[in-house]
Amino acid sequence: MTDFTAPEKMSAQANTHGISFNEAILVWMRIAILSFGGPAGQIAVMHRILVDEKKWISEERFLHALNYCMLLPGPEAQQLATYIGWLLHRTVGGLVAGGLFILPGIVAIMGLSYIYALYGNVGFVEAIFFGLKTAVLAIVIQAVVRVGKRSLRNPIMVSLAAISFVAIFFFGAPFPLIIVAAAAFGFMGARLGRPEFAPLEHGGKNTAVIDSMLGDEVPDHVRPNTARTLRVGAIWLAIWLVPVFTLLLVLGQSDVFSQIAVFFSKMAMVTFGGAYAVLAYVAQQAADYYQWVTPREMLDGLGMAETTPGPLIMVVQFVGFMAAFREASGLTPVLAGTLGGLLATWVTFAPCFLWIFVGAPYIEALRGNKALAGALSAITAAVVGVILNLSIWFALHTLFRQTYPVHQFGLSFDAPVFSSVDLPALILSIAAATAIFRFNIGMLVVLAASCGAGVVMRLAGFI
To answer: What is the pLDDT of residues 375-386, one digit of tens each?
Structure first.
């Protein structure tokens, strides 16, 4: 962990790949501010900026990192940012990339939590983001198209994506089961020498910065090192768990702050399957078991997380805020809520850095393994189906005011109530999609125009 205070090493590395740390900070800030729309939208933003625009990382390495992050508990988009930041500028690069990714969400959710707790609703604030959601829907669809075109390069990969989508969307198949099945299928295909499972090529040459940097001489921080792994693991376990055990010792198990620390620490370890699986678990426990929030408040918190930048799992900050706000433990409610929200955020995201800094060197070292490459190629195809599932989920809740659950003949999915279609959202979504796909208008322009259109619609009484 010496690279926390090793500017000379970081400077030397910047000279290797030509990307200064200051330039990287600006790009990570831009990604953070644009990180709306859940994991699909956030992955789309990172892909567009880092792979297509900046050419910092190749398609193949981007998907390799994404596949690893999809296997981890917690928000995959934030972990992907941490991974790529680590590749570029060592540990401090990962900290900045991953930290900046969640910073706008922390500020936004905290501000909205104050308004919600003190005044009871955030209807007007949510209306401000109405137009933004419709633009994000178009960006999410673009992500499916762009990643699908490059990774579904033969009928077997297309079939894997289709099966994956049907299994998770219509039958509620567990996400880990889909990934394990795809990995096993790809591993066997590669071992049998099937060309369909060969690793993704990137135009026959390494034009991406990270790939060029790691082509001949692999930097020290990317090489697996057992002693460093143990040291890094010990430090990040302490960063994560020392506050938890301190609260338990000082306040006891029944105190709300101890309960927040323990519950969200458990959540950080067991919640696989993407943001929506995580949110279902959090909603059930927070509303039914702990009774920190009501189901309606949980939906309001999800609305905040959906319409502000950052991972959807940032809703944990709202839950922690409301829990501590109502059980202030001798503090003023606002101060207690602030500390409760920040504590929930801390124990949720500290493990994300642990998984990346400990595991990423070993994942990078396995990139040349053909059998593993086959497994990851199959996972990539399955992930396209998963992203499509997230995209449709987001579309259903953006374009329709009501959905109903379908549970028969083995099916398990939410279907739209077509009479509840949100016409203003539909019109703005079509306009945003037309601007992106037909006229190739930049993402920032589309986001700004959609946000402005949403505000105008609110003032005109259409929403």
So the answer is: 878 887 887 887
